Amino acid sequence: MLAASPAVLFAQENYVIKGRVGAINAPAKVYLTYRADSKTVTDSSATHNGAFTFNGHVNDISQAMLIVDYKGVGFQNLDRRTKQDVLTVYLANGTTNIISTDSLFDATVSGTKVNDDYVRYKAMLKPATDAEKALNAEYYAAPKEKRDSKEFGDYYDKKDSVIELQSKNLNKQFITENPDSYLSLQALKSMGGPYPDPNDLQPTFLKLSKNLRESKSGVAYQKYLDQLKAVAVGATAPDFAEPDTNGKMISLSSFKGKYVLLDFWASWCGPCRAENPNVVKAFNNFKSKNFTILSVSLDRPGKKDAWVKAINQDGLTWNHVSDLKFWDNDAAKLYGIQAIPQNLLIDPNGKIVAKDIFGDALQKKLTEIFGKI
User: Fold this and answer.
1) Model's pTM, two decimal places?
2) Alpha-carbon span 282 to 292, nearest angstrom
3) Before 143, cis peptide (omega within 30)?
4) Please, what is the average pLDDT of the chain?
5) Which candidate, 265, 261, 282, 280, places its Cα nearest to that of 347?
6) If I label 280, which of 134, 144, 289, 343 is the partner at 20 to 30 A Cα–Cα?
């Protein structure tokens, strides 16, 4: 029966983590945090001469973070503005051993296949991750005037595109060489980046082993790809309705007959706020030409004031809706949104004609449709 249902093999992972970091003692603690069923789970372990331990179970192999609280201030009181001593691990059947003489960041991880695979995966991606770190260091070392110049922006984008392609190719290589590794599923997600193309990812997904594709995570990822196909360019945009800032329900279909830029953002999202001037420019340039915008905010529960304040501060004078459910926003889940900003351009018949067009690309696309202003 187990052989006939590979998904059963992934039904529950009983994990044990045994670690040692230096020779720290109380009040120092080590925290384990991960996501399960859309909730954040946090556990803690006291330290004795650097030793700590965790055990438990999860419904499927899960990525987690270990964080050292050297001063014993408590998880909620850790200073997120400073560099934390953290380590990514995967929770899986068996015992994972973590050993370091000084910090978690430099720890040696062994004992479970998925964590051994993660060590190999990081090593394979190192050329791309090192190049990305160097590019970011170059960016922040440059004077603000230089960073703000178009020339530097073009230079940065060009180098970033090269690194992105390098990373994509390395991820694809790992998948090809390790079709049965859970990390290959993670590599596939990395290949897609923040704006995944299901037509590009589906063939690579099918190269994964049958067991992995039929695991809980594999089935969920295929469902996600199917969801992305349903909102790809050429598809009919799914309808939804959410409340505006006054609580009035506004539906996407109420704008039928116009070109609509469906814009996903949030007041807390820095890249979204940086993109907003471009969106304002597009709205002002083309609002008289059968064009409008419907913005969907992924603001947190209880943060309506922050949402409204950001709308006013950024001069976003079009329709706004949100159910204030953060990443569980119903419209965002309907459209498979896992990163913001994201947008879709929808024609008067409700067809999606473009996706993820920002900055100059947004102005260019609208000019193609409506002509020069």
Assistant:
1) 0.81
2) 9
3) no
4) 93
5) 261
6) 144
Map tokens 């050292």 to a residue: 68
pLDDT digits (tens, 9 = 90+) for 66-102: 999 999 999 999 887 788 999 999 999 999 999 999 9
CA distance 36 to 38: 5
Look at residue 172 and tell me whether its pLDDT is greater than 50.
Answer: yes
User: 284-316 burial string, b = 16+ CB within 10 Å, else e?
Assistant: ebbeeeebebbbbbbbbeebbebbbebbeebeb
Inform me whether the pLDDT recorded for 112 exceeds 50: yes
From 324, 326, 313, select the one nearest 276 (Cα to Cα).
313
Backbone angles phi, psi at 28, to 5 degrees: -60, 145
Please state, for a pLDDT cut of 70, what percent of the chain lies above it: 97
- Is pLDDT of 130 > 50? yes
Instruction: Judge whether 251 and 239 are in contact, CB under 8 Å.
Output: yes
Q: What number of CA atoms fall less than 13 Å from residue 193's CA on the CB side?
A: 15
> Which tokens in the block code for residue 232?
């790809």
How big is the CA angle at 333 (ends 306 and 246), to the nearest 5 degrees? Answer: 35
pLDDT value at position 11? 57
Q: Which of left, alpha, beta for 245 (phi over 0: left; psi -120 to 50: alpha)?
A: alpha
Q: What is the pLDDT of residue 10?
A: 43
Q: Give Cα 258 distance to the centre of its chain.
A: 31
Q: Which residues pair with 355 in a beta bridge?
A: 344
The encoded tokens of residue 55 equal 């055990």
Query: What stretches of the chain show up as alpha helix (H) in DSSP?
Result: 113-141, 144-147, 150-177, 182-192, 198-205, 210-213, 216-230, 270-286, 304-313, 330-334, 359-370
At residue 320, does pLDDT exceed 90?
yes
The continuous run of DSSP H or E covering 109 comes out as strand 108-110
pLDDT at 2 over 60: no
Can you read off the two tokens belonging to residue 354? 């473009």
Closest CA to 45 of 28, 62, 21, 65: 28
Please report how many Cα atoms fall inside a 13 Å half-sphere around the Cα of residue 166, on the Cβ side. 15
Closest C-alpha to 131, from 169, 89, 88? 169
Q: Do residues 167 and 125 make contact, with C-beta atoms less than 8 angstroms apart? A: yes
pLDDT value, residue 1: 25
Residue tagged 């059963």 (tokens): 8
Q: What is the mean pLDDT of residues 138-142?
A: 93
